[in-house]
Amino acid sequence: MIDFDSKARGWDDVPGRRERATAVATAIRKNVRLSGQMSALEYGCGTGLLSFALQPRLGHITLADSSSGMLDVLKEKISSSGAKNMTPLLLDLSIDPLPTERFDLVYTLMTLHHIADTLDILRKFHDLLKPSGIVCIADLNKEDGTFHDHEFEGHHGFDRVQLRKLLIQADFKKIRFTTPFSIKKGARVYPLFLAWGEKK
User: 0.85 cut: is pTM over it?
Assistant: First the structure.
């Protein structure tokens, strides 16, 4: 599996990562009505690229990740930016209890394919939302296993029909998909989806 702690310092400098986060943030803003009164949770935030792109449009943002190395870089970025509405949180929902806070918006970028039990994490996202809260998930379309160039134990992307079924099982409604970005690796192109839905 990827050693995220060791990769944290150079994470933002990898070509395409900033552009990817900007494209996903644009798609979220286009399809979800954001406001400065909304509380948000980014799960699997890494160095916070997506949250920094959304930060001016939201109220308080909790940025959660299981990598302390990523959060160290994130803390430096928050400090240097002067942002007052961003709080890092070390959190692994596969082993840690749910935070007590509830949110208007939960979002992830390229995180879901690293989590073994997809339905379980979707149900936890549902639990973390306030009534009528919104979940936004950006990740890879189903791919042939060539996206990761190392021994990878996670999901090789997601079939949209199957993911929709899982979101419904997790009690989300009004589920929609769009394609905000594609990742190019050599001659290969890997489209990303943005899925969003509302808590029942």
Answer: yes
